Amino acid sequence: MEKKAVSIISNNKTKNITEGIAKLAFQICAVLMIVAVFSITAYMIMKGAPALQKVGITDLLFKTLWKPTAATPSFGILYIILTSIVGTFCAILIGVPIGLLTAIFLAEVAPKPLAIIVQPAVELLAAIPSVIYGLLGLMVLNPIMYFFEQKIYANNNTHQFSGGANLISAIIVLTIMILPTVINISTSAIKAVPQKMKSASLALGATKMQTIFKIVIPAAKSGILSAIVLGVGRALGEAMAISLVSGSAVNMPLPFNSVRFLTTAIVSEMGYANGLHREVLFTIGLVLFVFIMIINLLLSFFVKKGMRQNG
Amino acid sequence: MEKQTKIKVRNLDLFYGANHALKNVNMDIKEKSVTAFIGPSGCGKSTFLKTLNRMNDLVDSVKIDGLVELDNENIYGEDVDTTLLRKKIGMVFQQPNPFPMSIYDNIAYGPRVHGIKDKNKLDRIVEESLRGAAIFDEVKDRLKKSALGLSGGQQQRICIARALAVQPDVLLMDEPTSALDPISTAKIEELMDELKKKYTVVVVTHNMQQAVRVSDETAFFLVGEMVEFNRTKDLFAYPKDKRTEDYITGRFG
Questions:
Q1: pLDDT score, position B146
Q2: What is the reported pTM?
Q3: Superfamily grouping for domain A56-309
């Protein structure tokens, strides 16, 4: 049978149309996302910046007195900023080593049957709504903290009792909340280290632990840093759980003080604030927004660095 | 002078689960010589190589029967420390696998995990090892640069230097040139000739010509069985087994 010559001139109109529509749909979605990011940024700056000017940047950011509803109101948010920084920092300081060791255990040490049980459990931990963590902290942590508070400040007249709703409770809740993030991402990073590197190390007579700490962890460094940065982002942005356990009073971030975070300040005051007070709350939002942006820039920096290393 | 036996293998059987991957292998590997394992893919030659430094231990579901002796010590004995075994039997892999660190740190890694901290001593070991792997002159000005910036052939010689740095007796090489270009391959083959003066070299290759060029003795494997083991000259000139003859004349494989 003779083969007929097939023309290459387009003959399928519907095919072209579907291709076109699909491409357009993707483009519209992408543009919508960009519009969303830019409009949120613009909105936060528009709403947050005026108060900066009205109160004065230094008065707002570097003064500690927060009396938004007094006759002569004072809007110093330094303690609030410090609380967010200290709380996040401590949660990272405790959570990262625990999370990293758990990740190493899951990825390298745990026998398979155990890892199969623990891994989904950790993932489930990430799915629990934050308010549940808050409730647990309220019921479990605060009474314990109150007990210690009573012991430590037994003969102290200057300490303002918090009933256990203090910075430590908030830090513990934050720590538990960032653990799943740190564990899951670090585990993936550690699992992504090529077997041939581990083999090379073992074949040189290195022990399993030497191989993990000298080869695997350094090779997974950028992934682990991403995990830490995402943990920071999560801790910084968390509002619900810590508003329940931190007592929500503006104080210097000391362990047994009731404290107010950037997020909880907005949550607990937006309902009744008006005028300049309301504008300042937007400024707090802007400060939080700037922090999160910095964190995300760091993240993309680490991810790119990691890609260069492995590329 | 007859060379001493370095590694003695008797009645070795290896199973991956239900898969009988090595069947009753017997072999004497002589010291300070190059022994080559040839055979088609999946014949068990790499698996056998890895039983010699117990890298097969890392595979789940592996079961090994039989005797493997290194200098008259059973390497599968109960009180064997695999880290000491692997210090004595170094290994070079099919794919060059330098660590993502500097050339210096790659070579110093082995000595460091075995407890050498003295900077001068490490410097000396690094230089000697790089010279031993015939790569020193090419990298001496960039020891602090990443080993990943080197070519594949250079990386493989870095890996050989890294293996030499722990001062092994035996060097196992698992198809060390299969990922390399012909020029790099020639350099590594030349190097093997040098290495056998000091080390017992065991090399897996699927390139028969390479076995002819580099080895003193050759073992031919086929589906888990060691078919024939003889001096390389004799094995290729006068194969005793029909299957060996079929393989080296290119009738299968």
A1: 94
A2: 0.85
A3: MetI-like (1.10.3720.10)
